Amino acid sequence: MVIGMPNLDPLKCDLLVIGRGMAGMAAALFAANRGLSTVQVGMTGEIVFASGLLDLMGVYPIEEKKVWQDPWAAIDSVVGDLPDHPYAHLTKDEINASFVEVLSFLQKEGLTYCREEKYNSRMINPWGKTKVTYCVPKSMWSGVKALPKKPPCLIAGFRGLSDFSARQIVETLRHQWPKLRAAQIPFPDTSHVKEIFTGDILAQSLELSINRKKLIESLRKRVKDAEVIGLPAVLGMHHTDEIISELEEQIGVPVFEIPTPPVSVPGLRLNEAFIRGLSAKGVKQFPQNQVVKIRRVKGEEFVAIIGHKPVQHTLLTKGIILASGRFWGRGLYADRHRIRETIFDLPVYQPENRDKWHSDDLLESGGHAINLAGVEIDHLFRPLDSSGHPLFHTLFAAGSILAHHDWMRMKCGSGVSIASAYGAVKASLRLA
Questions:
Q1: Nearest C-alpha neighbor of 41 from the set 67, 15, 63
Q2: What SS3 state is found at 334?
Q3: What is the distance between the alpha carbons of residues 334 and 342, in angstroms, rounded to a whole number?
Q4: Structural domains in the chain plus CATH codes
Q5: 39: which strand partners?
């Protein structure tokens, strides 16, 4: 029933996915692809704050800051040292299969990614440093290819765009890429604006042909000897590949995007692709809704109350994947005494007292102990109770809420989210 609206039957589904970040989106995709009737609920996920890059495994050990060219060898090393890491519950074939499925889905939604299957790629970040990642949006791939060759390159920024500095990128990279130069150019029809805080406005405006023509004119005047051009990642919201092709054809050199700080346009593109594609696959989505209450009923089924007052929906589901994230996603909450999971009050792996959550050094080389906090799982991705047994037969967990991984410092966030979602859905089918 719907509270406040009687005489309506409850919604029924095979699987409820709680969370709309990368793990939640991937879990909903894997479930829908396998014929499971799926409902997804949650607030806006962290995808919109992401760079659009998909990491697999880049840095380990953290304290040594060892950067790996081969992410698969890095996973072997991590699992050997940390047997409770989420990757330890999956084979490398399963991890790769999860990426293949997600990348194929995104390509069909018009968002193409590039990767070297056996290797990480290195690219420029918003501050002019370089970082390793695994899957790169096609719009950024020319930058990945140019970085080791270091040809004459123009980095062009837009006047008023507050979170992107072409000059900073050039000055930071000049010692390793001497033929870089910076230019600050006007963005079409923004001369009256002193400061632009969000790139999505620019991205939307470049969907118009007249604005692309003005941008091309500005770049032509400054291209000179440049063999490649880097621009902030605002080259369209829905037709980025076509816009870049048009720029390259008219200017005569490859063009690539450079991520901007959050909220990033590539993150928005990724989020929209998932929403659009999952809806087409029949996933029932309740965006900006929360789980109000859950209880287990006959057998292994759950009754969940979802929504916001005064409108709330009752859902009857056979299984649940908890992909609610960590502190940012409100999957975990820290009070004065402990860290707790917010929906089921699951046991959370954490330091024994608050004094040990953080090291004395803010920039502790190995990260802080709190970064490894999260829900512990069995080999079927089921959360464990205090005695080490699965709490419920058909409750699973995926993504950053899982314990024993520091996704930010290890550069494995998207990989853990995608692969653990794959493992959780596979386990739900096995136990159905």
A1: 15
A2: strand
A3: 10
A4: 2-109+268-431 (3.50.50.60), 127-260 (3.40.50.1860)
A5: 16, 284
**Assigned token pair, 404:** 């024993």
**The two structure tokens encoding residue 395:** 């409750």
Residue whose token pair is 């990767």 = 115
Crossing angle between the packed helical segments 413-431 and 22-33, to the nearest 10 degrees:
40
Query: What global pTM score does this model have?
Result: 0.93
**Between β-strands 136-137 and 113-114, what pairing exists: parallel, antiparallel or unpaired?**
antiparallel
Q: CA-to-CA distance for 230 and 416, rounded, in angstroms?
A: 30
Q: What does the H/E/C string look like for 268-292?
A: HHHHHHHHHHHHHCCCEEEECCEEE
β 11-18/332-334 pair status? unpaired
How do the pLDDT tens digits run along the chain, 432 residues long? 333 443 357 889 999 999 999 999 999 999 999 999 999 999 876 777 788 999 999 999 988 899 999 999 999 999 999 999 999 999 999 999 999 999 999 999 999 999 999 999 999 998 999 999 999 999 999 999 999 999 999 999 998 787 889 999 999 999 999 999 999 998 887 665 566 656 788 899 999 999 999 999 999 999 999 999 999 999 999 999 999 999 999 999 999 999 988 878 999 999 999 999 999 999 999 988 889 888 888 766 899 998 877 778 899 999 999 999 988 888 898 888 888 889 999 999 888 878 777 777 777 667 776 888 899 999 999 999 989 999 999 999 999 999 999 988 899 999 999 999 999 999 999 997
Which segments of 262-412 are extended strands (E)? 284-287, 290-296, 302-308, 311-322, 332-334, 339-341, 395-397
Residue 27 and residue 418 in contact, taking contact as beta carbons nearer than 8 Å:
no
**Rounded to an integer, what distance in angstroms lies between the CA atom of residue 239 and that of residue 413?**
27
